[in-house]
């Protein structure tokens, strides 16, 4: 029988903490649990901050958080789970960036911390106290890490870029109305 070491226990705690928080946030968006607003209201909010279509954006964010978080907590498909969660958090961080770094001012600190923890787990792997380990790492191969993170980065860049264009266009449209008066 193999003894688990500090690294395995530390990764388990990091996976449970990060994955649990992400899964709960995703459940708020998807199901309205834990004081969340569910897909319809979250979709309207997503639309108001430039992510369109809103319901599709809410679903994608919710799945990235809930799905990625749950899989991280279980230590299953860790590269894909970490990349999906990191991508969702990069999208959240983009909304908070104008408010600076600190969360107390509405900044991106919290989203960045969760995203970096998720990406770190994707790179490091889940440890031996995980479903990936129990299944012989069939969903946690070394080549999967750069692939998953690369795909997540490309998709996130496209989605956030389109959102930023919509936000700029809306701001310019509002400025034109102000100057016409």
Relevant terms:
181 residues, mainly alpha, 0% strand, elongated, disordered C terminus
Please give a quick description of this structure.
The protein has 181 residues and is mainly alpha-helical. The chain is 74% helix and 0% strand. Helix 1 (6-31) packs antiparallel against helix 3 (54-74), helix 1 packs across helix 5 and helix 3 (54-74) crosses helix 4 (78-96).
Explain what the structure shows.
The protein has helices at residues 6-31, 38-48, 54-74, 78-96, 109-124, 131-134, 144-180. The chain has one domain. Residues 176-181 have low confidence and may be disordered. The longest helix has 37 residues, at 144-180. It is built from seven helices and no strands.
What is the fold's blueprint, element by element?
Layout: H1 6-31, H2 38-48, H3 54-74, H4 78-96, H5 109-124, H6 131-134, H7 144-180
Membrane topology: Multi-pass membrane protein
Pfam family, one: DoxX
InterPro entries: DoxX (IPR032808), DoxX-like_oxidoreductase (IPR051907)
Please compute the radius of gyration using only Cα atoms. 18 Å
- Written as H for each helix and E for each strand, in order along the chain, the element string is HHHHHHH
Helix content range of the residues, please?
Answer: over 70%
How much strand content do the residues show? under 5%
Q: Biggest β-sheet, characterized?
A: none
